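Folding follows sequence. Below is one example:
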Amino acid sequence: MSDDVISLEGGLFEEPEEFVQPPPEPHFAHYQRKEVNGTAPSPSEVTLRLVGKSPLWGHLLWNAGIFTADYLDKNAASLVQGKRILELGAAAALPSLIASLNGAKEVVSTDYPDPELIQNIEWNFDNLAKEAEVSPYSVKGYIWGNDVGDLISSTEDEDNKFDLIILSDVVFNHTEHDKLLKTCRDTLKKDGKCLVVFSPHRPWLLEKDLEFFTRCEEHEFKAEKIDLVVWKPMFEEDEETAEIRARVYSYFLNPQW
């Protein structure tokens, strides 16, 4: 080989073994609340801290989370006020935060028990509580399908269960559908609802996403479609699938027991 040619096989640009890349810094997003019946909500803006990077995708503010927050603000009188609220897979917990601003009796916000994710949700609640009056809340690490003893004191006592369970952008976890539904079945009141919102991030697996709404029948739920809107897709890299990825589906799961 000529002396003028530099071989890259030796890892010329590789970092030394002792070098460790620092984790990405947290970053911030600002959610603008919309008027409801001509009345501007207060506070009008909610600041969210997002983790720097997460294999669980908690570092992004997704369209489904924004849609869910909008929907809770708009329908707070029937869905939130005086209700016990549980969010599963909360990530930055925007829907939980909006519920806490709308007079919920209690808000329990959960995600996978990763310390960074849980601490970040706590930061978002603590920060909001400095600016506005919020409902009583707790933040918990929880793995779907596990014992619900940390979420409710008894599965036999209806008063301890939740009136509304929020599942925002979690149905892409196809292998976890039964676990999600089991947790919902164990913790939801007989007259409660699950609010399920999602976007098809992998268009070729949309049918797998939608299977959640038939599989729910095995857990004594019946799906009720609320809406289908088309927004801007989160990522622009694939124009052919942009319209599908821009969709935001919303459903209720209604108990049948």
Observations:
- The chain has one domain: 27-255.
